[in-house]
Amino acid sequence: MPRPTKGARLGGGPSHERLLLAGLARELFQYGRITTTEAKARRLRPVAEKLITKAKKGDLHNRRLVRQTITDVSVLHTLFTEIAPRYENRPGGYTRITKIGPRRGDNAPMAVIELVEALTVAQNAVGEAEAATKRAVKEADEAKAAKAEGSEDATSEQATEASAKEQAEGDAKDA
Amino acid sequence: MAVPKRKMSRSNTRHRRSQWKAAVPALVACDRCHEPKLAHIACPSCGTYNRRQVLSV
Question: Which InterPro entries does the record associate with it (chain B) (predicted)?
Answer without folding.
Answer: Ribosomal_bL32, Ribosomal_bL32_bact, Ribosomal_zn-bd
